[in-house]
Amino acid sequence: MKKKLVLLIIILILFLGCTEKSINKPKQYEIKVIDANIDEENKINLEIQSKEELSKTRIEILNENQKLACFEYFELSKGNNKISIYCSGIEQKKINIKITPSDGKTIEFEKEIKAVKLVLEKGFNYKFLLDVFKTGQKVNYDLFVLDENKEFYKIMINLSTEDLNYYNFMLIDKNSLKIQSSGTKTSCKQAIQAELKDKFDPNEFDFMLSVIFLSYQNIEGFNLKEFIEKKEFTYTKEKQVTFKLKEKKLFNLIEVFNGVYSIKGIKEKPEFNLQAEYPFILLYYTSSEGSFKYIEKQKEEFNKENNGCLNAGKNN
């Protein structure tokens, strides 16, 4: 009797084991990724084709180095599905996509996405944040494109906190990308009325950050377009400063050169991200002193009346 009981238990264990394997064995579904692109709202838009309806399907987006950037669950219908995933952690144009149905095998795809092109356009505000580590002060840095024609952009840079407002009016030559600037002023009216100059006070470094490499063209021997081609420039007139561009990556979905600059005799090597395409705006900078970061582009006109520069004068 005991032998029969033991045999029955063994049979039940084997049967249950086989059943469990049968139940848990993931199915192979036919799924294709037709298209993948990325937009200015940090969303990856996918077009996925499925031969069957699939519930609770996990979709993961990984960087080229297999680092998970984002994931979400979706109900996929039979046929074509257009879905969007908010994904702020993308650093390369090549992404890996993993699709796992609730009862199915994971299917992997590799896609190359187009980077967002950041261009300067009239009527837009390009928002940055300047963080001063020593004081903990966070400064809003807004670059407004007031106007443009075939030759120039008219730019107003406005730095603001709860207590302070600074203004810098500029003309940027579209061909050479050289700048003429009012210099930093405490009122919009002063900036609009100022005589524009192509020489900059080193103390205005923070105010020039977004266009700093354009302003460096006033340094003897520096040409921005040549620098982009050669990836390195060393300035030795007063102190030896070297700028180097390294690998390309994505920053806020915009293709940039990751770079460093070094001053001879100083250990610190601050990093920066320079837009890889025209007009070569600086989108990120960090050092022991602080950081500077591009946040977003907004449809917004510069309000001359609220800023006290309506009908201010010759550059208006």
Distance between the termini: 104 Å
Structural class: mainly beta
Tell me roughly what share of residues is in helical segments. Answer: 10-25%
Mean pLDDT rating: 86
- What is the topology, as strand order, of the major beta sheet? 12-11-10-9-8-18-17-16-15-14-13
| Radius of gyration from CA coordinates | 28 Å
Describe what this molecule looks like in 3D:
By secondary structure, the protein is mainly beta. It has 4 helices and 18 strands. The protein has helices spanning 2-24, 188-193, 212-215, 224-230; strands at 31-38, 43-50, 54-62, 68-76, 79-86, 94-100, 107-112, 124-132, 137-148, 152-160, 165-173, 179-181, 232-235, 241-251, 254-263, 271-275, 282-286, 290-299. An 11-stranded antiparallel beta sheet has the order 12-11-10-9-8-18-17-16-15-14-13. Strand 15 and strand 16 form a beta hairpin. It is elongated and about 85 Å long.
Name its key features.
mainly beta; elongated; 11-stranded antiparallel β-sheet; single chain; 4 helices; 4-stranded antiparallel β-sheet; 45% strand; 316 residues; 13% helix
Give the arrangement of secondary structure elements.
Layout: H1 2-24, E1 31-38, E2 43-50, E3 54-62, E4 68-76, E5 79-86, E6 94-100, E7 107-112, E8 124-132, E9 137-148, E10 152-160, E11 165-173, E12 179-181, H2 188-193, H3 212-215, H4 224-230, E13 232-235, E14 241-251, E15 254-263, E16 271-275, E17 282-286, E18 290-299
Antiparallel strand pairs: 1-2, 2-5, 3-4, 3-6, 6-7, 8-9, 8-18, 9-10, 10-11, 11-12, 13-14, 14-15, 15-16, 16-17, 17-18
